[in-house]
Design the sequence.
C-alpha cells in the first residue's frame, strides 16, 4: 500500500456537517448592527465563520470543492453547539480586520496566528494550538546559532520558515 498524502487530503470531508451549511462571499457582508454578537447569531439563525482558503490543515478545498480542515470541523461543532446554521464566509487574508469590523462574519477560523499587532487590534481567543519554531542545525555547529547578533552577522545564512508572513518578517 502506498500513501498518497495529497490524495488523502483532497478526499477529506467534514465528519458531522451542519445541515444546509453554505459558503458565501465576504464582499456583500452586512454592516455591524448595534447588537451583541451572540444575539446577532441567534437572530440570523446562523453562525458566520470567516475562512481563508488554502490554509492547510485548517481550511482548504477538497477535491469536490467543499471547504474542509481542522478549523472547519470546529466551525461546524460551534454552530451545532449554538443550535444554529453555518455560513462559511470566504475572504482574502489581508481583509481579516475589515470583514470582522463590518460584520461580514462573526468569527474567523483559518489557522490565524496570534501576533502582538493582532492582539492589540482584535479580540482573540486562547490558542488551541501552539507551534514552536526553532533552528535545525548540525549538532557540531549549534554553538554558532545561539546569539541573534551572530545570526545577523551571516549575510549568506538562509532561513526557511513556515509560510507565515509574521515569522518571515521577524527574521528579516
Sequence:
Amino acid at each position: 500500500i502506498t500513501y498518497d498524502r495529497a490524495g488523502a487530503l483532497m478526499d477529506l470531508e467534514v465528519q458531522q456537517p451542519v445541515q444546509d451549511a453554505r459558503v458565501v462571499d465576504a464582499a456583500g457582508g452586512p454592516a455591524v448592527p448595534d447588537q451583541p454578537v451572540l444575539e446577532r447569531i441567534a437572530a440570523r439563525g446562523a453562525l458566520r465563520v470567516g475562512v481563508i482558503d488554502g490554509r492547510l490543515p485548517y481550511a482548504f478545498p477538497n477535491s469536490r470543492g467543499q471547504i474542509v480542515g481542522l478549523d472547519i470541523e470546529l466551525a461546524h461543532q460551534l454552530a451545532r453547539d449554538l443550535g444554529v446554521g453555518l455560513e462559511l464566509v470566504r475572504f482574502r487574508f489581508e481583509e481579516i480586520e475589515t470583514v470582522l469590523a463590518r460584520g461580514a462574519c462573526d468569527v474567523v477560523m483559518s489557522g490565524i496566528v496570534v501576533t502582538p499587532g493582532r492582539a492589540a487590534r482584535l479580540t482573540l481567543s486562547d490558542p488551541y494550538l501552539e507551534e514552536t519554531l526553532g533552528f535545525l542545525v548540525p549538532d557540531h555547529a549549534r554553538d554558532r546559532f545561539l546569539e541573534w547578533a551572530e545570526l545577523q552577522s551571516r549575510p549568506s545564512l538562509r532561513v526557511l520558515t513556515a509560510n507565515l508572513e509574521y515569522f518571515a518578517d521577524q527574521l528579516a
